[in-house]
Amino acid sequence: MSLPRPRRPLRDADGVRRFRLFLVAAVLTVAVTRLYLAATGFPQLGSGDLHVAHLLWGGLGMLVAHLLPMLFLGRAVRTAAAVLAGVGFGLFIDEVGKFVTRDHDYFYEPVAALIHATFLAACVFVLLVVGRRPPTERERRANAAQALAYAVAAGGVHRPGFRWPDRLRTPVELMSGTTRTPALDRATVVAVGLLAVFSLGRPLVLLSREPGLWRGAHLAAAVAALLVTAVGLIRWAAGRRASALGALTSALVLQLVVVQFFWLLDHEFAGFALVLVTLALLGRCRGMAARQRAAAGDADGRVRVAA
User: Fold this and answer.
1) CA–CA dist 11, 18 (Å, integer)
2) Domains, the chain, ordered by start
3) pLDDT tens track of the chain, all 307 residues?
4) How far is CA 132 from CA 117, 144, 148, 282, in A?
5) In contact, 55 and 95? CB cutoff 8 Å
6) In angstroms, how far is the first alpha carbon of the chain from the final one?
7) In terms of DSSP H, where are the helices of the chain?
8) CA 68 to each of CA 10, 24, 63, 82: distance values in angstroms, whole numbers, following the listed order
9) Of the candidates 80, 100, 75, 84, which has an alpha carbon nearest to the alpha carbon of residue 28?
10) Cα radius of gyration rounded to whole Å, the chain
């Protein structure tokens, strides 16, 4: 008797976590590779007409990352495969300039923006395919069965999840926004406002020097981000914390997806410093919003108990 086939693939409960590891590994690999090559004068591995590009090492890393979960069982194996795949993909995408230009130009100026867009497209894909709806009952059962299989593979020993060391836990919690720190919360909101104002300056200058469609699109996106940020700041001042954080988060996403794409076209890899600042602010705003939702849920629970 054949088992019924699911109409769509079942989502892994650890899938988004592993994707985050993949993404972090890929971004760090690109950053470390560029810094290392710049510091060492862009050495070449090979002699004469032979040059072993680091793209090939990236392909090897992705090959091993594919083979690991094919051949071995366990959560640790799949986690290691995600990290190795990120490193391999980072080495691969770093050389994209060689494959979109006729003269194989590694230093092609729009490369930073292309890499940024590739990572964003991957994030959007994961969000749309995996993160839009809660797990179904079938997926919950399948993940429970998989967790049991992992426990059997580990010899039935319970292995607690990852915990930050005590010395690092407080800084990590502060950066993630999950700990209530009013002064840091206010500083985060102010920083989002300053980012919106700062991001508006560059397209204004560029458009005044060299009018064009791209410059106009850059300015329009920066103005839109500033307006959404202003809405968030007004709501924050009025004490409407949850809706304020929603607006500020939307403004940061707009900054990350559109405004900073143009920023990277202009500043190349040096522009990633602002991208990292935006990501840090986005992480804090999301953590603060989660804290607000948890507090609202606790308050509703107390009201129901009292009633």
Assistant:
1) 12
2) 15-42+50-153 (no CATH), 166-306 (1.20.140)
3) 455 555 678 888 888 889 989 998 999 999 899 888 888 887 766 555 666 788 889 999 999 999 999 999 888 899 999 999 999 999 999 998 888 888 888 888 889 999 999 999 998 888 888 877 788 888 888 888 888 877 776 665 445 455 555 554 455 455 555 566 788 899 999 999 999 999 998 888 888 888 888 888 999 999 999 999 999 999 999 999 999 999 999 999 999 999 999 889 888 888 888 888 998 899 899 888 988 888 776 555 555 555 5
4) 21, 21, 26, 19
5) yes
6) 54
7) 15-39, 54-71, 75-93, 111-129, 137-153, 166-176, 182-209, 213-237, 241-254, 260-267, 272-306
8) 20, 20, 9, 10
9) 84
10) 23
DSSP state of 48: T
Contacts of 281 (CB under 8 A, 6+ apart): 188, 191, 192, 195, 252
DSSP-derived letter for residue 6 is P
Q: Which residues contact 141 (CB under 8 A, 6 or more apart)?
A: none
Q: Which residues contact 60 (CB under 8 A, 6 or more apart)?
A: 88
Helix axes 15-39, 111-129, angle to 10 degrees: 170
Q: 3-state DSSP call for residue 49? A: coil
- Two tokens, residue 246: 């929603």
**Stated pTM of the model:** 0.74
Which DSSP symbol is given to 7? S
Q: What is the length of the chain?
A: 307
CB 111 within 8 A of CB 132: no
Q: Name the one residue in this structure whose structure tokens are 């979960």.
A: 69
Distance CA 82, CA 12 (A): 13
